Amino acid sequence: MPVTSLPPIPSQTAPSPSTAPKPTTQPKPAEPVQGSCGTVTAASGLTLQVLNGPGVSCADATGIVGSFHKRIAGRQSAGSDEPVSETVDGWLCVSGAPAAQGGTSCSKGDQNVFAAVVPVE
Fold it and tell me: Does the pTM of the predicted model rise above 0.90?
């Protein structure tokens, strides 16, 4: 009796190089989306809403603003009319006058982070 062989099961055959799917584009790394990143407490006691700029993650943005306000603790009261600046991890940050509801801005090269005073209800 002649023995006939069955064709291989498709899942067991390796695709040939000419039939293998080829990627059309390389995936891009996820870029941080600009927007609201939560709140931090300012050195003056005010609450700030942190906004990250293009290319800055929310974790980095809130970390920078939080570290800045810890560094300037005691240097800017809630009634102060003077801005305060400090460099944090290469970022130049400035806190506007709390008496004028001044927020915070930080910049490093072409990257920016902002933190606006949350109005008290």
Answer: no
Give 99's pLDDT tier (boundaries 50, 70, 90): confident
What is the three-state SS of the chain? CCCCCCCCCHHHCCCCCCCCCCCCCCCCCCCCCCEEEEEEECCCCCEEEEEECCCCCHHHHHHHHHHHHHHCCCCCCCCCCCCEEEEECCEEEEECCHHHCCCEEEEECCEEEEEEECCCC
Q: How far apart are CA 107 and CA 43, in angstroms?
A: 19
pLDDT value of position 119: 84
Rounded to whole angstroms, the Cα distance separating 60 from 52 reads 8
Q: Which residue has the higher pLDDT, 25 or 112?
A: 112
